[in-house]
Amino acid sequence: MPERKANKIMPFAQGAEFYFAKYKRKLEQGQYIEALCALRVACEKEPENREYALELAELYTEMDFYEESNYILLKLFPKDPDYQEECLYGMGCNFFGLQDIDRAKECFEKVLRYYPGGNYEEDAADFLEYLEEEQQIGGILSAAVFAEAEKGRRCLDNGETGQAIEIFSKLAEAYPEQVFLKNNLALSLYCAGETDKAIALSRQVLMQERYNPHAICNLLLFANGAGKKELVETYRPLLDKADCREADDDIKVALTYCELGEEEKAYPLFRRALEELPYDGQVLYFAAACAQNLGKYAEAQQYFAEILKLWPQNTVVSYYKQKMQRCRDTGSVLKIPYTCQVPEEEIARRLLYLNTQFALPDEALRELWQQDAEFSALVLWGMEAGGPAARKMIIGVLVRIGDARAEEIMRRQLLKREESDEAKNMLFFALHYIGAKQPYIAYVSGKMTEVRLGATEPSLGKVPDSYDEILRQLLELLTRLQQKKMLPQAVGLFSEYLSTYTKPPALRNCKAWAGALAVLALQEEGVQVRPEQAAELLDIQVRSINRCMGLIRRKMAEKS
Questions:
Q1: pTM
Q2: pLDDT over threshold 70, residue 322
Q3: Cα separation, 267 vs 271, whole angstroms
């Protein structure tokens, strides 16, 4: 009888070691996306394995995902002294990549101070020497200038054009040689409806730097948006001569070509940008959209596939990927926009679906969150892509869910530089409510800081003890009103009110403030409730609640 061959079929379920070995193999082959996918699985299977976590943080840094890397390192740092030197050095590299120069120097200096003769001493010293030389010759602007410019960009993204103009006007006047500040000021002016001023400033920049890509693009976009065809024709030849020195320049010029309907000239620039930023999700999206709009279906699908490997829960990409296939099957034409967002009718459908699910009882909502991948992905989409109202709603849902994954999502959101300080204030209260351990590490007003409940800015001093009592009374009142699910909205209002002060105000009548916050938050959400009801439940005079409501309304009106 012939000898039976050994069964070479591997078991379906593999352990963490298998995926870590696969990660190493893919990394050696230069297949970073495949390596990342394998390493993520290894970390999921052994979440307490610190060696795997450090590998993941290092890989994120190599792929320019600095915030993701820092999130891991900040979690690891207090857990094990053996890894602290490596964590400090890694965070220094990440802060450098994020242009947070002061924080980068702080990390490298700590490596030299606390770990002399360590594994990273020489590298940290080299980094510090480079940073100091660059700052001396003016090659790097101070962290304060970058933080202020970042604040201006956030204002612009949030539609606060007046504040953006004020910030960039001051910066451009103080640093006239920094053309990027003038370009941002021109964009702010245009968004505020001051098109002629924006065009004039862009022309001024071009007199300073004839082929500055951002100034050329701004001028063409402003003129095209205002219907000034002659001006577009005059400056259009400059676009072909734009002095593109880095990926950001290529992207700006490519998007301008797309706006002018010349996508065949845009596509090579997107591809060139990807040579420098091969894992940048936004650039991959632009390249995919441009490829599809030029009829390059296979290339578009490949770009979208890479994005979904990097971010499996990206529902915008999955939407267009599926729609591309349907259009291909039916022979219809699909033009993908460059806004990295689904169409308005799909936004409406998603919000309607989410609102329907959010009405479920808490237990049913948690079960849906844990078992339905589409629902949890759409919750993340709402957090990332929604406006202030949608984000407030999503934070409220994460509070109701209250599990470890919900906590992690909120903590990660705190480290996103583009997130508004107002939303972060809400997140502080939400994390406190679900019992998440303090302090909360966040970028606040452009600076990374440790924040405790009630601290709306790093400069705020000790928070009055009455704030905790107000929150306790607020929770108790909403529970008695059978509106416990509205706590995040009320806490958000409290956070907004506190943010109007530079120092924590003394709020002594805790019950009155809790009543005022509850009534105003419920009324804002369309719930019929009167101050008299809250006063009766709190056993206080209704005039006390009315007085606090008046103070809140006045401060919020002043802020508006």
A1: 0.78
A2: yes
A3: 6
